[in-house]
């Protein structure tokens, strides 16, 4: 005899909801004379089943679903009851013990019964007994219980069923670092046609979306490793069918010790060789994220580039003698460590331009552009006119080398990967971030952002703990690899952004406000919980004090920071000089010499030189070049008479030797500044 308890809290909910609501007698199911009914005249059946008799044609070897409705006839019979236990009793084993029930209304439920696949061919008739009990041992029953539910099954000879199986979408062998995000869930496809099945595992760090079902189905296996320490963990998922077949799926999860990374201060390097001047060497600082000074080495994949280690410094030196002229040559420098706790670090991307001539004169391209940005490793700039495409120019030849098309409708702010991998642009019309693979420009990705975009939106591609992310001035951060939203940052406002090369600090200045305010933030990306950016305000908003008369700076236009984060600069409409600020507290240090009305651009080159540009239509110069120590070196004139540089639209080539600016003449000016 199979005595199956099925309703539990579902019936309790049904009866309690019905209490006090009246009700009437009814139903055709006949109550039996159970031992707890005292031999009195049987009460009307507690439930009415529809249909009143189960009649079904079955196939041998197959479990079939039987659907029926159960209606409560007299809710008042259950007044005062705190618990109702319901049982289906199958004396001969025609059913499987996995009855299901769902609520249709306060007095009606749908019931699903499953026939046994082992029934022999032929006719099977009998009664199921349904009991509604006051206790789990059924020593006392409610009025109208027990009830009989007749059935009549005709079982035909079995059909040939497909082979039973269970197959995961990927191998169930994976690993992770302790404390990091869990591995991705895995789907398991159950081939269970004509059968019911169960699935189980004894591992607490594995979770199944379902432990029983019928027919073909898909399960989801999730990992829950939060409590696991370093080690190797194994288990088996056992999937068993109603006809006795079983599939075991072994699972192995390896928890690895904390991972550390070798982090180069910069991951993109631009080198240049021309007949008159060149830049063929760069020194980068290398650190590991643990701070314990792991040993490391470096190697170049090209013979023309050497990589030499000295302490924590890596010096890259190029010999362009073997390289073809007037082309861009590429090399990759790989860092490595014998320390097993150090993960594979980011490679350093290097590009070298070997020019057959040295530019000496400024070039003016008569095009009306609105945005420009320089490539950190290639001698290229990217510029657009707020339309749907981006033009590419070589700063050494002043020639347009490409146009990226069908990017959007109304392009806005741009940013670029620190290693030159991708160019990003905002499409204001569709609120999308457009990502262009610069190695293969035809590969374009478009990601929906979480806010409406305007011309005031700014963004920066930064490296934080070796992971490239995009931060915006509307308070969001995204993974650059796939556009996934990571977290809110709190960096919000009509502000311009500047970032250190290591991605650890972000500086901001509001645009167009008087007095101007500046902010400094620390940024730390963690892979825990699927990825998170922790942003902390390093200084309270600072109103920057001006040059001589103590007047606060006003009409903020641009902000820049040196690659190592040791120097911060701002361009403000007033006073009429670019300012140098403390990177620690954003206090005013000094004004850069030279300058005029009204500073609206400031940039720091890879060699540390600083360029301050102005919106000065009648000035004899509109850009001043300063050494890293602040001394004035020389000045330039970009715009024509009564014309000026556009706010924040000045850029320095990756090698620091070419300067670019957009003016409202309109012009795109490309100016050689040399070493």
Automatic annotation (TrEMBL):
Record has Hydrolase as a keyword: no
First and last residue of the signal peptide: 1-18
UniProt name for this protein: Putative lipoprotein
Superkingdom per UniProt: Bacteria
InterPro entries, per database record: Ig-like_fold (IPR013783), Quino_amine_DH_bsu (IPR011044), WD40/YVTN_repeat-like_dom_sf (IPR015943)
Keywords: Lipoprotein, Signal
């Amino acid at each position: 005899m199979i005595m199956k308890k099925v309703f539990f809290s579902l019936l309790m909910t049904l009866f309690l909801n019905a209490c006090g609501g009246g009700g009437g007698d009814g139903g055709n199911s006949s109550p039996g004379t159970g031992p707890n009914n005292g031999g009195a005249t049987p009460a009307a059946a507690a439930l009415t089943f529809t249909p009143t008799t189960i009649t079904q044609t079955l196939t041998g070897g197959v479990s079939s679903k039987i659907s029926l409705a159960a209606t409560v006839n007299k809710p008042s019979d259950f007044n005062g009851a705190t618990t109702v236990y319901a049982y289906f009793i199958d004396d001969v084993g025609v059913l499987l013990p996995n009855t299901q029930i769902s609520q249709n209304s306060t007095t009606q439920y749908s019931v699903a019964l499953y026939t046994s696949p082992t029934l022999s061919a032929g006719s099977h008739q009998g009664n199921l007994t349904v009991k509604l009990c006051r206790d789990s041992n059924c020593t006392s029953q409610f009025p109208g219980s027990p009830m009989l539910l007749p059935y009549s099954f005709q079982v035909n000879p079995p059909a040939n069923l497909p082979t039973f199986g269970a197959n995961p979408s990927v191998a169930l062998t994976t690993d992770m670092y302790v404390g990091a995000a869990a591995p991705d869930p895995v789907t398991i496809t159950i081939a269970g046609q004509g059968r019911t099945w169960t699935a189980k595992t004894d591992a607490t760090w594995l979770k199944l979306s379902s432990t029983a079902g019928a027919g073909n189905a898909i399960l989801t296996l999730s990992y829950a490793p939060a409590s696991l320490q370093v080690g190797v963990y194994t288990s088996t998922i056992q999937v068993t069918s109603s006809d006795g077949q079983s599939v075991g799926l072994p699972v192995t999860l390896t928890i690895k010790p904390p991972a550390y990374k070798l982090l180069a201060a910069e991951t993109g390097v631009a080198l240049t060789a021309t007949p008159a001047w060149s830049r063929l060497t760069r020194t980068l600082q290398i650190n590991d994220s643990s701070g314990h000074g792991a040993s490391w080495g470096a190697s170049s994949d090209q013979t023309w580039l050497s990589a030499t280690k000295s302490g924590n410094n890596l010096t890259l030196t190029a010999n362009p003698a073997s390289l073809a002229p007037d082309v861009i040559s590429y090399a990759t420098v790989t860092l490595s460590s014998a320390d097993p706790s150090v993960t594979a670090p980011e490679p350093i991307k290097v590009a070298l331009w070997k020019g057959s001539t040295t530019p000496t004169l400024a070039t003016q391209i008569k095009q009306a552009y609105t945005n420009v940005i320089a490539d950190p490793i290639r001698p290229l700039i990217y510029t657009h006119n707020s339309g749907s495409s981006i033009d590419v120019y070589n700063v050494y030849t002043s020639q347009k080398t490409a146009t990226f098309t069908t990017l959007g409708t109304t392009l806005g702010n741009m940013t670029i990967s620190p290693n030159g991998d991708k160019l990003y642009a905002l499409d204001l019309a569709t609120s999308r971030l457009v990502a262009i693979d610069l190695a293969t420009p035809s590969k374009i990705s478009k990601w929906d952002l979480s806010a409406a975009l305007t011309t005031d939106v700014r963004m920066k591609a930064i490296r934080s703990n070796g992971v490239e992310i995009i931060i915006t001035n509307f308070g969001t951060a995204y993974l650059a690899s796939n556009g996934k939203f990571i977290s809110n940052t709190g960096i919000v406002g009509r502000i311009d952004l500047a970032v250190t090369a290591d991605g650890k600090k972000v500086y901001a200045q509001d645009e167009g406000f008087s007095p101007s305010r500046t902010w400094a933030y620390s940024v730390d990306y963690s892979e825990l919980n699927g990825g998170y950016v922790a942003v902390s305000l390093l200084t309270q908003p600072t109103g920057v004090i001006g040059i001589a008369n103590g007047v606060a700076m006003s009409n903020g236009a641009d902000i820049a920071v040196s690659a190592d984060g040791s120097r911060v600069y701002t361009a403000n409409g007033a006073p009429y000089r670019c300012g140098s600020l403390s990177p620690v507290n954003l206090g005013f240090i000094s004004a850069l010499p030279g300058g005029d009305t009204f500073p609206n651009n400031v940039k720091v080159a890879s060699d540390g030189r600083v360029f301050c540009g102005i919106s000065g239509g009648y000035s004899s110069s509109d850009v001043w070049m300063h050494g890293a120590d602040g001394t004035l070196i020389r000045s330039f004139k970009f715009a024509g008479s009564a014309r000026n540089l556009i706010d924040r639209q000045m850029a320095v080539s990756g090698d620091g030797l070419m300067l670019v600016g957009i003016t409202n003449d309109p012009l795109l000016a490309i100016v050689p500044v040399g070493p």
